[in-house]
Design goal:
This protein is mainly β and 752 residues long. It is 3% helix and 49% strand. The strands form 13 sheets. Strands 1, 2, 3, 4, 34, 35, 36, 37, 38 and 39 form a 10-stranded antiparallel β-sheet that branches. Strands 45, 46, 48, 49 and 50 form a 5-stranded antiparallel β-sheet that branches. The chain has a 4-stranded antiparallel β-sheet with strand order 5-33-32-31, with no helix packed on it. The longest helix is centred in the N-terminal third of the chain and has 15 residues. The chain is elongated and about 125 Å long.
Length: 752
């Protein structure tokens, strides 16, 4: 193990030694090591089991390529031929055992959603929209068995007596049609659509519905009993094993989980509605610079959160009515289920064409293969152990061989390094028996989807413990694994790890907040740090006055208190490389061009300035963020932001009484308030030691450095004590006090 680690480290060091000045110092490791991570890539003749192991899987061969884009239904005939119902053309294809296909029947309607074998030979076919049930003989000649008034016919089932049952929509009616074509309503489901049908060994009819997704059991008289009321929108498919166990595929999509008329897009409408996660951050800003993919194993339940249930699931219902969810997926919708003799369950899904095998006790999912189509719509197992399946987008008939492939290929998803990156070493963990091989190669490019502009695949790397990646520097990277086995053994790949160095991106100071003068933040707990967050000087007066409300600074700055002469700045910064940042803070007086250092190498996004150390005036600060702690001196970068201009004023205003007189029997005092550095904020007076009362300027608004006031008092002859107090915008306070002699009233005129 020590030897492996050292060789991998040497390989990475050899690549990093030539890194240019623009690249960060800390590498990023892209690891693929579990089922969900492997499932993001594409497989060919490979399988991914529930333990995250990649190994050789069954070979997929093409049987027949249909002209129709959608293949909905499939059934095996007595002669070994396969009959396939299509969409957009309303045709039924007959594919013989050699793979030769032809059009067997062409309906007037656009869709053939259901097929069933007719007693005595021939087929029943259900068409939509405004469809009919046709009886078709071995030569392809058809007659109309039943023409219901319903718009859609989704499912067919035939009992031992030759009666045909039809599941229809959009009124959710199940019909019973006798062999001579006489139809009647067998059960009204009170749902929007009856979708799927199956007949149990005792003759009971099973019905799966849409809106809501329920599973009914109907007796011979049509008496219903709900076996399952699922959280999904639709019970799409029903299958029975020889012991009478029911397997039901449920989806969260629209009716039929597939378009019933020619669609405008290439995808069925079964895709779950995407959910959006919104993260909101609220800050005080003064200056601003502009899913589990492989499925869930047995025993789980569909989530009932605000994002809704998963895309689909498969239920198992025992004959006594006990059910459990044996598989579910947020990404894949199950369209059909096939049962294997050993008890395994095959699940065909969309919209990425995956086929899963559920096996073991409890059942565990294995990604068996991925078709070259968007949806696997029907599965069928023949007597030779081969699994035939149909697809849509495009419409194909394919076959899985029971034998293991000799060679398979896995292509990873594309890794986005966010910027141009230097690739380090790639290493992998694999079990490689003698005579087998695991070959890893890479390619890179600067477009999100690989195309002709990407580099070619490299030659296979030879050192499993760590080989330098030889693909050129680029933003995107992809790797490929080719597994080759022999007749007896197969290799197993369990993880692949690729290292890379993203280009170092300059940190960004997003905003600077200038808090009100005198506002500081007291740390909530004694930590040995300065008492005031962001301040390491001596506080002249520690009798801090609490202020109501929360702080506007960075996180965990503490309780807001008032301390005269101090000015607090907080900021927000970000780094796309997630580097650790430190900050230098500079200041200059407005009009000057030279920045002076205020504080260096701050770890927190807060600084407190004792403004009594500089003359009064108008100032600007500059915060410089550096990613030096996470990068070498030659590769570190800085980003900066300047604040808006702000005033520093530690001098109180001056009060000048200009006159004292009488106005109609009342005392009038006029005075001026002047401040050299900031606006006058307010003026107040106290009479004979009473409470402070506000005085308003003559012009009605306090907004300039010189304000004129007039105070008129109701006074009697004698001495009154008047105190005048003025406050500027930076909370500097001045007062003027004097005894004011109330002038006596004028003498009354003599009487005549």
């Amino acid at each position: 193990m020590k030897n492996r680690l050292s060789r991998a480290a040497l390989a990475l060091a050899a690549v990093c030694a030539g890194v240019s000045l623009a690249y960060a110092a800390n590498p990023t490791f892209w690891q693929v090591s579990n089922e969900a991570e492997f499932a993001r890539g594409d497989v060919e003749n490979l399988s991914i089991d529930g333990y995250g192991r990649l190994t050789l899987g069954p070979t997929t061969t093409s049987v027949y390529d249909a002209s129709a884009p959608f293949l909905w239904s499939m059934i095996s005939g007595p002669d070994g031929s396969t009959y396939v119902g299509s969409g957009n053309e309303g045709q039924i294809y007959r594919v013989d055992s050699s793979g030769k296909g032809s059009v067997f029947f062409d309906a007037e309607e656009l869709e053939v959603h259901a097929l069933a074998l007719a007693p005595g030979g021939g087929l029943y076919a259900a068409t939509s929209p405004d469809g009919k049930i046709y009886k078709i003989d071995a030569a392809g000649k058809s007659t109309v068995l039943f023409d219901p008034p319903d718009k859609y016919i989704w499912g067919l089932a035939v009992d031992k007596a030759g009666n045909v049952f039809a599941a229809t929509g959009d009124k959710g009616v199940v019909y019973k049609i006798t062999p001579d074509g006489k139809g009647s309503v067998f059960y009204q489901t009170k749902t929007t659509h009856a979708i799927s049908l199956a007949i149990e060994n005792d003759g009971h009819l099973l019905v799966g519905t849409e809106s809501p997704g329920r599973l009914f059991r109907l007796d011979a008289n049509g008496k219903p009993f709900v076996l399952l009321d699922s959280p999904y929108n639709e019970i799409h498919t029903l299958r029975l094993d020889p012991k009478g166990v029911i397997y039901a595929a449920a989806v969260s999509g629209a009716v039929g989980s597939m378009p019933s008329t020619p669609p405008s897009s290439a995808e069925p409408s079964s895709s779950p509605t995407p959910t959006v996660s919104v993260s909101t951050e609220i800050t005080a800003i003064a200056v601003v610079d502009s899913t589990p993919q492989g499925g869930t194993a047995a025993g789980s339940t569909p989530e009932r959160s605000n994002t809704g249930p998963s895309a689909g699931g498969v239920y198992r219902v025992t004959p006594d009515g006990v059910w459990d969810l044996i598989w579910s997926s947020r990404e894949d919708s199950p369209y059909d289920v096939a049962l294997e003799p050993d008890g395994s369950v095959l699940v065909g899904t969309g919209n990425k064409g995956k086929i899963y095998r559920l096996s073991g006790d409890p059942l565990q999912p294995t990604l068996l293969t991925r078709a070259t189509a968007q949806q696997v719509t029907a599965l069928m197992r023949d007597g030779q152990g081969r699994v035939t399946f149909t697809t849509s987008n495009p419409g194909k008939v394919l076959r899985l061989s029971p034998a293991r492939a000799d060679r398979g290929t896995y292509t990873s998803d594309v890794r986005d390094a966010q910027t141009i990156a230097t690739w380090g070493a790639i290493r992998w963990q694999a079990g490689v028996p003698q005579g087998t091989r695991v070959e890893i190669a890479t390619r890179s490019g600067n477009t999100r989807t690989p195309d002709e502009t990407w580099s070619d695949w490299t030659t296979p790397y030879t050192v499993q413990e760590g080989s330098p990646i030889s693909s050129p520097r680029a933003r995107y990277l992809q790797w490929r694994a080719v597994l080759t086995g022999n007749k007896g053994d197969a290799p197993v790949l369990t993880s692949v790890t690729a290292a890379y160095l993203p280009r170092n991106i300059r940190p960004d100071v997003v905003s600077i907040t200038i808090n009100p003068p005198g506002t500081v933040f007291q740390r909530p707990f004694p930590t040995g740090d300065p008492e005031i967050a962001g301040f390491d000087g001596d506080v002249p007066d520690r009798r801090n006055t609490p202020q109501p409300g929360g702080g506007t600074g960075g996180p965990n700055v503490g309780r807001r208190v008032y301390q005269k002469g101090l000015l607090t700045f907080t900021w927000r910064a970000q780094d796309e490389n997630r580097d650790e940042l430190i900050y230098d803070v500079f200041y200059r007086r407005e009009g000057e061009t030279t920045w002076k250092l205020l504080r260096r190498a701050l770890a927190d996004e807060i600084v407190v300035w004792d403004t009594s150390s500089v003359p009064n005036g108008r100032y600007v600060i500059r915060v410089v963020a550096s990613d030096a702690p996470s990068n070498s001196p030659s590769t570190s970068l800085t980003g900066a932001l300047e604040s808006t201009a702000f005033d520093i004023d530690n001098t109180p205003p001056v009060i000048t009484v200009t006159s004292v007189g009488r106005q109609g029997g009342r005392l009038a005092i006029t005075f001026d308030v002047r401040d050299e550095n900031s606006a006058v904020q307010k003026a107040e007076y106290s009479l004979d030691g009473d409470r402070w009362q506000t005085i308003y300027p003559k012009d009605g608004i306090a907004d300039s450095r010189l304000e004129q006031y007039e105070l008129v008092l109701d006074g009697e002859p004698g001495t009154r004590g008047v105190i005048i107090r003025a406050t500027d915008a930076l909370n500097n306070i001045a007062s003027a006090r004097g005894d004011v002699l109330t002038p006596p009233p004028a003498p009354a005129p003599p009487k005549r």
